[in-house]
Amino acid sequence: MQAAKIIEHITDWLDSYAEQSGAKGFVIGVSGGIDSAVTSTLGARTGRPMLCVEMPIHQHSDQVTRAQRHIEFLKQNFPHAASTEVPLTGLFDGLLNVLPKDDNEELHAMALVNTRARLRMTTLYYFAAHHNYLVLGTGNKVEDFGIGFYTKYGDGGVDVSPIADLNKTEVYALGRELGVIEEILQAAPTDGLWHDDRTDEDQIGASYPELEWAMEFDGDEARLEARQKEVLAIYRRLNRANQHKMQPIPVCMIPENLKS
């Protein structure tokens, strides 16, 4: 993998897209994870304004610290990088108080998790509209096109997706090339949407390298080991269940004879 050349390619692509769209710069939600760290650094490399937004909602302190340290890194290296914090815990709790309670605690908790992501998307688009910026997506290839590990109209609601053709391991390679701080490179991936410190692997049941293997697998399943069969089943189940995120919104086409 030619990380340096890929970095230049994405940087040029972002700059060109912004130029063609008439946007002045970019805005991104910074979580303290590798995907947002790499994406925000790529956006900053264009020389255009790069606004990093912290949006804590009952956030784990380690995630907040990593996000702040990454923002410091950007500001030290890129003069057009800026940041703002929009604490959303109060807004989230207020919404929680007016939403109907659900006897199914598991479904209730999942719905609230997705609500967090959608509050953040709304916040990012406020800044995008206010400054004429583009919202940068932080999804990687496995998340966006493999297992659909994102929130529809939440972190999936973006203007451009700079790293969506890169697997997670490739994103880490870019992070090392870009000089992303070590705390982020070493941190276990997490979506940061829960009160606890559960990781992506805890939620999915497989690591990103395993999922990358499953996404590319096209061999003899009879020769697979037990863990490989388990990972392949996890990947296929999630890919099947989340097709509604990865496919265009279905449109009911009306026959012309019914319109006349």
Structural features, described:
- The model has no long low-confidence stretch (mean pLDDT 93).
- The chain has a 4-stranded parallel sheet, with helices on both faces.
- Helix 1 crosses helix 7 and helix 2 crosses helix 7.
- The protein is an alpha/beta fold and 260 residues long.
- The chain is 56% helix and 7% strand.
- It is globular.
Secondary structure blueprint with pairings:
Blueprint: H1 3-21, E1 25-29, H2 34-45, E2 50-54, H3 61-77, E3 81-85, H4 89-98, H5 105-131, E4 133-135, H6 141-147, H7 168-178, H8 182-186, H9 200-204, H10 208-216, H11 226-241, H12 243-246, H13 256-259
Parallel strand pairs: 1-2, 1-4, 2-3
Helix pairs in contact: 1-7, 2-7, 10-11
Mean of pLDDT: 93
CATH superfamily: HUPs
Provide the gyration radius in Å. 19 Å
Please give the largest β-sheet: 4 strands, parallel
Structural class: alpha/beta
Overall spatial form: globular
| Distance, first to last CA | 57 Å
CATH C-level: Alpha Beta
**Tally of distinct domains:** 1
What is the strand tally? Answer: 4
Q: Percent of residues in beta strands?
A: 5-15%
CATH architecture: 3-Layer(aba) Sandwich
Listing every helix as H and every strand as E from the N terminus to the C terminus, the arrangement reads HEHEHEHHEHHHHHHHH
Features:
260 residues; alpha/beta; Rossmann fold; 4-stranded parallel β-sheet; 56% helix; 7% strand
In short:
The protein is built from 13 helices and four strands. By secondary structure, the protein is of the alpha/beta class. It has one domain: Rossmann fold.
